[in-house]
Amino acid sequence: MIGALKGRLESTHEGGCVFDVNGVGYLLSCSRKTLDALAGREGAQRLLVETRVSQDAITLYGFADAAEREAFRALIEVKTVGPQKALIVLSSLTPDGLARAIAGKERKRLSEVKGLGAATANRIVDEPAMQKWAVGRATPEADGEGALPSVAPERGAEADAVSALVNLGWKQPQAVTAIARVAKRLGEAATLDALIREGLKEMAR
């Protein structure tokens, strides 16, 4: 299976692009946001790839970053949401925007995505797996304090707490956000034990 490609953008078309890797053109299906990101860069680029195999085809889906690929993988697990509808969603919403919409049960926001429809939007919001995916990724936009970090700290008690949550089975982006919230609440004097304990409570909400 192909997990990533490094090459140059050869051409774009509705719903995807041709990506040149050492003279071999790979046909990739991509969201509009990924296509825009590719068009805005010059030289060699790296794309993450999801390979889907069906009875009559092998299809490659390209992503500008890991967050979008993770969102794509979560979406296609929802009944009636196939790869093409997942790309439609990701063409309109960033992964964090999607997570906020799901966590906030913003059905209208999702139903307004062109080509999705109200029934599919409701199914996405109500899917327990999607709710779990959204936990920790949804970051506040207007709480007066700005969005929480999505990049793990390199050292210190917060970094150790994030690592502990990841080792317990949580995904890193969710763990990073949860620990950032706890650290902000507890202050600089927070111990590692307190960060982990309160981080677990945050993840369970």
UniProtKB/TrEMBL annotation:
<dbReference type="GO" id="GO:0000400">
    <property type="term" value="F:four-way junction DNA binding"/>
</dbReference>
<feature type="domain" description="DNA helicase Holliday junction RuvA type">
    <location>
        <begin position="1"/>
        <end position="62"/>
    </location>
</feature>
<keyword id="KW-0238">DNA-binding</keyword>
<feature type="domain" description="Holliday junction DNA helicase RuvA C-terminal">
    <location>
        <begin position="157"/>
        <end position="203"/>
    </location>
</feature>
<dbReference type="InterPro" id="IPR000085">
    <property type="entry name" value="RuvA"/>
</dbReference>
<comment type="subunit">
    <text>Homotetramer. Forms an RuvA(8)-RuvB(12)-Holliday junction (HJ) complex. HJ DNA is sandwiched between 2 RuvA tetramers; dsDNA enters through RuvA and exits via RuvB. An RuvB hexamer assembles on each DNA strand where it exits the tetramer. Each RuvB hexamer is contacted by two RuvA subunits (via domain III) on 2 adjacent RuvB subunits; this complex drives branch migration. In the full resolvosome a probable DNA-RuvA(4)-RuvB(12)-RuvC(2) complex forms which resolves the HJ.</text>
</comment>
<feature type="region of interest" description="Domain III">
    <location>
        <begin position="155"/>
        <end position="205"/>
    </location>
</feature>
<dbReference type="InterPro" id="IPR012340">
    <property type="entry name" value="NA-bd_OB-fold"/>
</dbReference>
<dbReference type="GO" id="GO:0009378">
    <property type="term" value="F:four-way junction helicase activity"/>
</dbReference>
<keyword id="KW-0227">DNA damage</keyword>
<protein>
    <recommendedName>
        <fullName>Holliday junction branch migration complex subunit RuvA</fullName>
    </recommendedName>
</protein>
<dbReference type="GO" id="GO:0005737">
    <property type="term" value="C:cytoplasm"/>
</dbReference>
<comment type="function">
    <text>The RuvA-RuvB-RuvC complex processes Holliday junction (HJ) DNA during genetic recombination and DNA repair, while the RuvA-RuvB complex plays an important role in the rescue of blocked DNA replication forks via replication fork reversal (RFR). RuvA specifically binds to HJ cruciform DNA, conferring on it an open structure. The RuvB hexamer acts as an ATP-dependent pump, pulling dsDNA into and through the RuvAB complex. HJ branch migration allows RuvC to scan DNA until it finds its consensus sequence, where it cleaves and resolves the cruciform DNA.</text>
</comment>
<keyword id="KW-0233">DNA recombination</keyword>
<dbReference type="InterPro" id="IPR036267">
    <property type="entry name" value="RuvA_C_sf"/>
</dbReference>
<dbReference type="InterPro" id="IPR010994">
    <property type="entry name" value="RuvA_2-like"/>
</dbReference>
<dbReference type="Pfam" id="PF14520">
    <property type="entry name" value="HHH_5"/>
</dbReference>
<dbReference type="GO" id="GO:0006281">
    <property type="term" value="P:DNA repair"/>
</dbReference>
<dbReference type="GO" id="GO:0009379">
    <property type="term" value="C:Holliday junction helicase complex"/>
</dbReference>
<feature type="region of interest" description="Domain I">
    <location>
        <begin position="1"/>
        <end position="64"/>
    </location>
</feature>
<dbReference type="GO" id="GO:0005524">
    <property type="term" value="F:ATP binding"/>
</dbReference>
<dbReference type="GO" id="GO:0048476">
    <property type="term" value="C:Holliday junction resolvase complex"/>
</dbReference>
<dbReference type="Pfam" id="PF01330">
    <property type="entry name" value="RuvA_N"/>
</dbReference>
<keyword id="KW-0234">DNA repair</keyword>
<dbReference type="InterPro" id="IPR011114">
    <property type="entry name" value="RuvA_C"/>
</dbReference>
<comment type="similarity">
    <text>Belongs to the RuvA family.</text>
</comment>
<dbReference type="Pfam" id="PF07499">
    <property type="entry name" value="RuvA_C"/>
</dbReference>
<dbReference type="InterPro" id="IPR013849">
    <property type="entry name" value="DNA_helicase_Holl-junc_RuvA_I"/>
</dbReference>
<keyword id="KW-0963">Cytoplasm</keyword>
<dbReference type="GO" id="GO:0006310">
    <property type="term" value="P:DNA recombination"/>
</dbReference>
